[in-house]
Batch of 2 targets.
Target 1
Amino acid sequence: MANIIARAIESRGMIEMHTSKGFFGPRAKQLGESHIIQRYFQPVMTAIVLTAAMLLACVPASATVLHLNDNLIHDLNSAVTETIVSVENSTILNLLTGGSIEDDLKATEDSTVNVSGGTIGDNLEARDDSTLNFSGGLVGDDLLAFDNSELNVSGGNIVDRLTALDFSTVNISGGFVGAVSEGVHAVDNSEVTIFGTGFNLAYGVYDSSGLEFEHGGSIGTVTGTLANGDAFNTNVFVFNSATVTLAATAVPEPSSIAMFGIGALGLFGYGRRRRQTSTAA
């Protein structure tokens, strides 16, 4: 590419030199300016065309899709040759440790996808009333829920963002959920519930022009501990009639624990007296 640019600069300099010497005079009328430009730039254009052809040859082939729509259960613990996996109808897919998908994994049409390990190069999606359970593994880009789907996140690693749209329901109780700057997005009547303890939320006004969503809302940086003990520290965005709920993890009250202890002691005493009576008999 550097050689092409150098040739272009050299050709331009030659034309400018001939122009300054009056080359575009009577002689130019005979040959025509277009002939002179073609003479000097044709090698350059040829090189550009050849370079473009080589670049096009390096472009990977179009994505290939593996459709799972037989209403059966599939376990995936190795790499697939297709770049996208689409789970359809009432089919169930379990992505296990060792499983690998180059681009996207999509749950659609009432299907169920359980991800407990493995890697997904780009996006993990739930669509069309499907259910997606994410408890382990790695998502290279985004985790998304569309079209009244259900997404349950209890572990794993999401590199970029988690987005809920179109009346979907998302429950987060563990895992690394998005980069701090990307965060969790609730959009278009979706419901996101984050289960944990010790949450701190600092609300602020945010200019929606910095986001890809059309309708503006609010932004908050949420910190705390998720229900499974994982740390939570990311931005939360709320848009267009969506809701985000910070739900405290249910723990027994101190009085309940005390009553349980008293009951256990009573049962222990009753059992001991019964054994003593049986021995005496």
Target 2
Amino acid sequence: MSHFYRNIRRLVFVCCWFALLTTAQHALAVVSCSATATLPASAYDATTAITTTGSVTVTCTRAANDPSDPAVGYVRSGGGGTVSYTIGADGVNTGNTIAVSGANQLNYSLFRPTGFTTGWSQTNVTSRTVTFGNGQTSASSTTSFTMNVPAGRWNSPAGLYTELVTVFLTYGTTNSTTTFTNSVTVSSICTFPTPPGDLDFGTYNSLATGPALAATSAFQIRCTRGVVYSFGFDAATSTIPGVNLNYSLTVPAGGTSPNSVVSRNIVGSMPSGQSGACSS
């Protein structure tokens, strides 16, 4: 009889231990989340700002009977539930960061999807939730961000600039990371902050002898740093219609663009002694 009771107690102990293990296994939710991020490649020249929109998708999985678990930000509601998470990215608090092309740099900014007011970084994060439907074991949430390069980055020479950006996902007390590549192709461009004006030779006296009349027009150009530039005219010598006076133009010197505005002059020369024709 005593042997029988010992077996009963052993059976009760084994059953209780199995129940304890089963309870422990269901005490915490088996929720896991991961992120993927993408940003399309961009093209840029210094005359125009660019804004490119990227996205981050967070996907979470769970067991259908998982209970709420603050360690993973999971709150069960009936047969469904939600996971609260934040996402941030590399960069200082304003979201400013740098892409590189060899030894050259291109400054750009990342912004949260609230307009160009709040930088996206490790401290300025975006808060979202993933929602599971009734009995659903996998769910996703996608949010956007923007990459901005303002106009005026003249100091970044033409080339392909890239940076591998790390995205930080936090749900509850759990952390993970993913990456995306920011790729910006900078092209060369030149503009005229101050375009050339008209050449004014003044009053021409056909009977006068002496040096040629001269006229000058100042202008400025700005090019992407490192651009080799030169100037030319459709005609370096020509005749003014109506008065039949000949003149010539001196081609300004070219050069390699620094990170600054370059000033040049167009110089015109009109020889004396031309008979011309009186204008009406």
